Structure formats: C-alpha cells, structure tokens
Amino acid sequence: MIKAVIFDFDGTLIDNMHLHYLTFKKVLGDRMKLEPMDIYRREGGNLFEIFTDVTRELSIDEYEVRRLMERKRKEYLSVASGLRMRPEALKLIRKLRKLHFKVGLATGSPRVALSDHMKPSEMALFDFIQTGDETVKPKPDPEPYLKCADGLGVEPVECVVVENAPLGVESAKSAGMICVALTSTVSRDDLARADFVVDSIADAGEIIKSL
Fold first, then answer.
1. What's the confidence (pLDDT) of residue 118?
2. The CATH number of the domain where 195 resides is what?
3. Cys staple from 182: which of 74, 112, 164, 192, with CB 3.0 to 4.6 Å?
4. Total domain count for the chain?
C-alpha cells in the first residue's frame, strides 16, 4: 500500500534546469563546448563530481574546480532568485495531502536554496525534506530517498518517487521504491528504468492515484 509520495525538486517541482545549464556555460565560458544534455543527464549528482566530469578535458586542479563551483552557485542565485514552484506541482501536492498521503522532498540542492524558491507556507506542505547538504552519498546512491522515507516514518516499498533525471530514477529504484519519471528535461529513453514515464505533473498524479 502506498503511503507516501517523495518529490525531487530541480526540474521536477520547479522549471529551473535551463538556468543551471546557462550558469554552467557562463562560468566555463569558451574553454569547452557544453550542451544542455551534458548537465541534464548528470542532474542530482554531487556538484564537485559534475564539474570534474564535464571539465575533464581541461585538466584543471581541485582548487580551480571548487572556484568554478562557487562562481556557478553565485551566478545561479543571481538569475534564479524569485523563481517559484510550478503551479501544477503545488496543486498536486495539496491534493495528495487531502488524500492523506505523506509528502516528502529529496533534493541534491542545499536547504538554503529551497528558501529562495519556496515560501514558508509551501515548505510546510512537506512532511519531511532531505537536502543535499544533509546527505553523505548523493543520487544515484539510494541514501537521499531512504533517509526521506525514514523521516516520513514509512517503508521504502510504501513510497512513490516523482523524478525527472536518470540519476534520480536510479536512486529511487535502488531504494526499492516505485518511480514515476517526468520528461521535463530528458528523453523517455534516458528514463527507461522508471516504472512509469509521463509528460506532466498532472499525469504523474493520475498514476499515483491508480496505485
């Protein structure tokens, strides 16, 4: 029996992945060619590992990677401040609560970043929030979703995850949870390990209600 729904944040509840890509591109400049899918397919992973991976051909040291990371964070905050959750996502979360589901959030973003995108009343809609700065092993490791389930007081098999990224799908499935994936940033083929692949938050809601 499904008792809880756990949402990813970036690209799932909020339409911000294009801003992550643009700020990566701005920070890296003309030193390398970077396409949106270079970032979208790595979404949810550790930021240091993402930077190290996409800049591998530049052969830069750890100090430079961390300097670029900090610049990227500042650039993102400058362009994304005030961006809010998708209205249809808020509608679904409120509906799930009325149906007595527990609602969780498991994101690779730090907790401070959530306050830039959610009002206190919106954060209060979640029964438990697991953030990237409170996680030792990021997605695709199952830890984020397992910790969120524990915080919600439910078993992994009682959870449905709503994701949009391949690493997030891997994390959810490794945690033993049902996963509904949105095609908001990557293709259906990229999300093939999910139990269900849908094109909208509303469609995800219909799947959840049918389980």
1. 92
2. 3.40.50.1000
3. 164
4. 2
Q: Mean pLDDT across the chain, nearest whole number?
A: 94
Q: What pLDDT does 29 receive?
A: 84
Whether residue 122 sits in one domain with residue 206: yes
- Cα 106 to Cα 149: distance, rounded to the nearest angstrom: 9
Say whether both 100 and 174 belong to one domain. Answer: yes
Range of the domain at 46: 17-80
Is the pLDDT score of 100 beyond 80? Answer: yes
Instruction: Report the alpha-carbon distance of residue 33 to residue 98 in Å, rounded.
Output: 47
* Rg of the chain (C-alpha set): 17
Helix axis angle for 166-174 and 143-152, nearest 10°, is: 60
Alpha-carbon distance 147 to 131, whole Å?
Answer: 10
User: pLDDT per residue over 140-176, tens digit each?
Assistant: 999 999 999 999 999 999 999 999 999 999 999 999 9
Quote the tokens at residue 127. 């029964």
Residues 71 and 88 in one domain: no
C-alpha 70/C-alpha 144 separation (Å) is: 23
Distance CA(12)–CA(203), nearest Å, equals: 13
